[in-house]
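2024-03-11 09:14:02 INFO receiving multi-entity request
2024-03-11 09:14:02 INFO entity count = two
2024-03-11 09:14:03 INFO echoing inputs for audit
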Amino acid sequence: MERRLVHFTLITIIIGFMLAVQLQTKRHPVVRDTRDIWELRKDLKQEQELEQQLLLEIRHNDEKIQNYKQSRSVNQRAALEETVNELKREAGLTEISGPGLLLTIEPFYPDNYVGPVVNTVSPELLKRFINELNMYGAKEIAIANERITNTTAIRDVNGVTKIGNTKVSSLPIQVKVIADNVTTFHNRLKASTIFDDFVIENLQITVSEPMTTVVIPKYDGNWHIRYMKAVQAEKEGK
Amino acid sequence: MWLPIIGFIIGITLGLLTDWRIPDEYSSYLSIAILAAFDTLIGGIRAHLQNTYDENVFLTGFFFNIILAASLAFLGVHLGVDLYLAAVFAFGVRLFQNIAVIRRIWLGKWMEKRQKS
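2024-03-11 09:21:47 INFO inference complete, emitting structure
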């Protein structure tokens, strides 16, 4: 009888153990890291670049704090104004000029073309195009004289593409791009496959030679500021 | 009577504490092994109640059933036929039968006791 009990206990211990292992496996399955050495290197490089960028930003902000602290009365206003201007520049509220390229989007039809005539560029294509430009190192972009900012919406309104507040209802349209390194940008763009995507929609892009100055207009919509409030000056007028 | 239940709890805590996990591909083998183990356990309880318990049959049955079920599942995976279903079916049917027998025996004992009192 005693032996029997011991055997049963042994078996139940084994069953309990197996059950627990199975439950645990089902709850958190083992996720294996299957990246090979090149993928690991790529990820590492990405992280390093991010670190670099963050360090740069930290240094920049530290400098700014130093500026605020130094000679409070005299320089503070100047430092604040500088920050405001910098933010405005980043938000696209100032006209900007620099070395860049001029791209023209035109209709393109083969000789024996029969079919609908396009006079707009589809939003999907434009978004892809902007992504491509950004990928190649574009700093500022304006399409049909409308500055592309972080919040510019590109959408289809009753069959006509709208970029921000501008309608794209007639071709050709001009795309202005400013880049830090225009030659590289130009070369990269020349090798891009985005032109083929445009040809599918019966459009073609002409790329100008690198120019020393391209003027990109400022964004002239209103920024809706929802989450910021002006601080009431406490000792004003005293 | 209480020792097996305590053993079961000890087994579960041990399993949870060791934080062991098996790869997802093998979890079906483990589940079928658990089923086989349960089948043997219930069969053992039934044999105990019917006074036909033999410890050699019980212990060899436990390990043999587990190994058989797992190898059947393994064979099924390699043949592309869900052979583990055969094991699940066999064990499942036997589990229900054994539990039914145990229930009847317990019920009979209980009725006897009530009639006596």
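2024-03-11 09:21:48 INFO post-check: The CA atoms of residues 39 and 232 of chain A lie 52 Å apart.
2024-03-11 09:21:48 INFO post-check: Chain A touches chain B through 27 residues (CB under 8 Å).
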